[in-house]
Every structure is written in C-alpha cells, then in structure tokens.
Amino acid sequence: MNEEDDLLESELRSLTLRAPSPTLEQRLASQLDAPARRPRSPRFGFWNPTLIFTPLATAAVFTVLLLRIVPDQLQPVSVANILYDTEDEGIVTLDDGQPAQRLRLRYIDTITWANARGGASLQWSQPRDVIQLLPLTYN
Amino acid sequence: MEDIADHEDWRHWFRHYGPRLLVCARLWTRSRADAEDVVQEAFVRYWRHQRQLGGDPLPLLLTSVRRAAIDLSRSHSRRLAREEQADLELDTSVFEPDERSASVEAALRHLPSAQRAVLTLKVWGGLTFAQIAEQLDVPPDTAASRYRYALAALRKELALLAHE
After folding, report:
1. Are B26 and B35 in contact (CB under 8 A)?
2. What is the CA radius of gyration of chain A?
3. pLDDT of B86 above 70
4. Rounded to an integer, what distance in angstroms lies between the CA atom of residue A20 and that of residue B43?
5. Which chain B residues are within 8 Å of A3, Cβ to Cβ?
6. Which of B97, B114, B115 is nearest to B153 (CA)?
C-alpha cells in the first residue's frame, strides 16, 4: 500500500462507529442476565445444610438397616425342577410278588443362590432321576 | 493494559465490540434493525457457548453474524417485514454523524459490494486478509486486491464529493 492508502485507512479507522441501540443491550440483558437471577434459598443458598445432610442421613439409615437385616452370605433364592424325559422300563415284580410298572423320570434341578448385600449370585444345576413303581392289578 | 477479551462482564465486552459487529452485520442485512437482530443472536451464542474457546473472538463472532444474517434472509416472512421496514428506515448511517463521516458513507455506497465487504471487515472488523478470505470464501490474494481497489475507489469518490 502507498502512503495515500495508509492515510485513508487511518482516517477510516478514526471515524466513530454508531453504538448499538439501548434496546439491543436490553434484549441482551434479558437473555444473558437471566441465569444469574435464579432464585436461591434465602438463608443458606447453595450450602443449605438441609439440602446436603438430609439425603446423607437417609442414605446412612438405609445402609445400617441393610447391614442388620441382610446377612453377608449366599442364600438360596429359587429352585426350579424341569422334567425333560420319561422312560417306561417295563413290568417288574416287587418283593411281595406283586407286579408293577417301572417308570424313570429324568429331571434337571437348578438352584440359585444370591448374596443380597454384595449382589453376587451362584446358579447350580444337577441331573436327577426318579424311579416310580406303579402296582398293576389284573381283573 | 486491560485485555477486553478477558473481561467477564458482557456489557463491558459488548460496548467495546458491539459497534464493530454492527457495522459488519450491515454488510449482510438490509436494515439496522435486522443487523441488531443478527448481532444479538451471534453475541448470545458466543457468550454462552464459545467464549471459553479462546483465541481471537472477532472472527468467530463475525462468522456467527454472517450465518445469522443468512438464516434471516432465508425467512420469507421476515424478509417481507424487513423490506417494508427498510422502505421506512431513513437513518441507516453506521457512523456517528459529522460532515466527514457523511461523505465517507456516501462514498462507500458507490463501491461494489464485494469491495465494500472487504474494506469493512478489514478496517472495522479488524480481520486479516486470511480471515476475510475465509469469511467471504475467496482466496486471500483476491481479498487483498479487492481491498486495494476499494481504497482507490473510495479515495476517488471522496475527491468527487469534495468538488461537488
């Protein structure tokens, strides 16, 4: 740029720009000052001890009750028996000489243990066979 | 020396930068009322969400101003209302009134809009040519050459006005 450009640029920079209208500043204030005017507790503000200590005290009471009522060990909470097969093993003779039909029932037993305090759980499944002897009569 | 960009009071900040934002907003709006609307939107967004980003705030703010102006111009109902208002608006000066500023303003109106935009963003927006290029989506060399042409044309217009 030449000297004339520099002079003109300086002159332009020296002109006083019009300020935004007072209305604009009021509109900005209504938006930007609003969060600062949030109502607070008249006595304690953010450090109101009631707001802080009440939840803490409630939590402490529940914790003590939980420790007293619930033992810290695994306990059985549910048992399920599922019959998944039945087999007819034919006619057998009982000790007293009476004939009987022998049935084999096959189950899966599932036992669930849980520690209510710690949240741990254990599931244990085992097969179980049941023999049923149904006496037969001949008419 | 106090760093105005670090000042926490928005009023202090706005009184310093507001006139510069407004004169740049007038580039992309058809009335002073619309310019104030877009400055308000951009400033609130900046103060609430972008202030902590650091760096030079003016390029960020002027980008927000330009986007708000584009959004405004896309609003059909607002455009109609604005045009009606613009017809009625007599006082469109961006400078405090005096004899010299009136001449400058008259001369500025004769510049091509592309040159006026570069001149405004450079002189009153305080942007570099690289920042102006980003704002106007032109190469930096183009921004620099438009600025030189704008100064030459403005000087010529001012000379003509002085002889009238």
Report:
1. yes
2. 43
3. no
4. 12
5. none
6. B115
Tell me the three state secondary structure of residue A33.
Answer: coil
CA distance readout (Å), A99 to A88, A132, A136, B162? 14, 13, 6, 135
DSSP structure class, residue A95: T
Which of B18, B40, B95 is the closest to A16 by Cβ?
Answer: B95
Q: Which residue type does A74 have?
A: L
HEC per residue, chain B: CCCHHHCCCHHHHHHHHHHHHHHHHCCCCCCHHHHHHHHHHHHHHHHHHHHHHCCCHHHHHHHHHHHHHHHHHHCHHHHHHHHHHHHHCCCCCCECCCHHHHHHHHHHHCCCHHHHHHHHHHHCCCCCHHHHHHHHCCCHHHHHHHHHHHHHHHHHHHHHHHHC
Q: What pLDDT band is residue B117 in, cutting at 50, 70 and 90? A: very high
**Measured between CB atoms, which of B15, B96, B151 is closest to A5?**
B151
Asked if A17 and B94 count as a contact pair (C-beta separation under 8 A), the reply is yes
Interface test with A, best of B20, B101, B111, B151 (most A CBs within 10 A): B151
- Helix B129-136 with B113-123: angle, nearest 10 deg: 140
| pLDDT tens, position by position, A39-94 | 454 454 455 666 667 777 777 777 777 666 667 788 888 888 888 888 898 999 98
CA distance readout (Å), B15 to A20, B9, B25, B48: 8, 10, 16, 17
Neighbours of B110 (CB within 10 A): 13
A12 alpha-carbon distance from chain centroid: 66
B-chain residues within 8 Å CB-CB of A12? Answer: 104, 119, 123-124
Q: Which residue of B has its CA nearest to A30?
A: B44
| pLDDT of B56 higher than 60 | yes
Residues of A in contact with B22 (CB under 8 A): 17-18, 20
